[in-house]
Predict the 3D structure of the following.
Amino acid sequence: MRNKELLVEVQDLSVDGSEELLSVSHLTGVGPRSDKNVTMTAAESLDGYRVVEPGDLVINTMWAWMGALGITKQTGIVSPAYGVYRSRPAAPFEPRFYDYLYRSPTYVMEMTRVSRGIWSSRLRIYPEVFLRMAVPVPTLDEQIAIADYLDRETARIDTLIEEQQQLIELLCERRATAIAQAATQGIDHAPLIESGNAFLGAVPAHWIVSRFSREMEVNGGQVDPRDYPWVDMVLVAPNHIEAGTGRIIGRESAREQGADSGKYVAKAGQILYSKIRPALNKVTLATEDCLTSADMYAMSSRHGDDHRYLMYFLLARPFHTFATLTSLRVKMPKINREELGEAPFLRPPTEEQRRIAAYLDNQTAKLDVLITETERFIELARERRSALITAAVTGQIDVRGAA
C-alpha cells in the first residue's frame, strides 16, 4: 500500500506548550528531550508545537535520511518542523511493527532516495512525498507476531550490548587507575611520604615535588598558518586527540583545514596539551614538526625529562582534576599559562621515568586491545540487530510460532 492508505498527517497544536517536549533520535527513536543528549538550544516558547499521541509516527523532516523518526509511546509535543502522522481508523497498522520497519536501513535508504535537497546533509522528506511511498502491509496478526519476535530478540541483543559497554567503562577506569598510580606513585614500591599537595597525596620520598612553571617551558609566538612553510605543516587541535589515551586521530595540514588564525609551532617529541574544558585530558606527543591550534600548549621539559612519562603524568587523574577545577574558576573554559604554572608537578629520576613510561606503554596496550575487541563485538551485535530487523519486517524470515 501507499503510506497515505495507512496514515494521515496531523497538525494538532499545543495551546500553551505545557505538554512534555519530545525529541527524535536516529539511535533511540522518539522520547523525552530531557532523556536525550541534545546540544541544540530549546525554543524560548513552546506555543504552537505539534501535539502527538501514543502510536503516532514522528519524522524529523531534515534528518529522516539518518533514520531520525519513530513511533511515540507517549503524549507530548514536538517541533513544528517535524512531520506527525496518525493511523487511519481500522487501518492494519501495528505501531510496534511500523516503528521497526520505518527505522530499518532498507526503508531509511528509500526515504533518502526520494528526499529533496541540494546537499546530502540537508535533504528533506516532505509529507506529500512520504505519503506517496509504498510500504509492505502484512496482516495485523503477522505484524503483531513480528513485533513480538523483534521485541524479544532485540532486547536480548541490547542487554548484551549494554553489558559490553559496561565492560569498556571498567577497562577504561582500569586504564586511568594504572596511569594515575604509576605516574604519581611509581612502580618500584618506594617508601611514600605526603607531598603536601591535596591532589597528589603520598608520593615516593626520592621524587622531586615542584611546580609546573619550574619544570616545563611552554612555546610562545604565533605564526600565520596561511604562510609558507606553515601552510603545509600538520595542524593538531584538541579534536585530533583521543581523550585519555594520547592517540592522535587523523592527520591534516593547515591548508587542508582552512586555518586562517594564529597557530603555535611545535617540534617533534614535544608535549601537546589541550587547555580548554572539557578537553583537558587530551595530551599527546608530537610525532613530527607541526602546528598546534591556539587551544593547545606545546611544551618541553626544562631538565631533559622523559616526555613520554610527562605525557602520562598530565593524563593522570590528579593532574586532570587540578586543571579542571582551576579552569572552573575563570570566565573562559580553559586553563591559562599562569594557572598552569601553579599546577603540582612530580619529577622522578630520569631512568625511573623511562621505566614508568615503558610499564604504562605495556599496560595500556593490553587494555587497549581488550577495549578494541569489545568495541568490535558491539559493532557486530548492532549489525546483527539491524540485519535481524530488516529480515523480519521484509518477510525474509517467518517468525510465526517463534518462541
Notes: DSSP finds eleven helices and 20 strands in the chain. The radius of gyration is 27 Å.
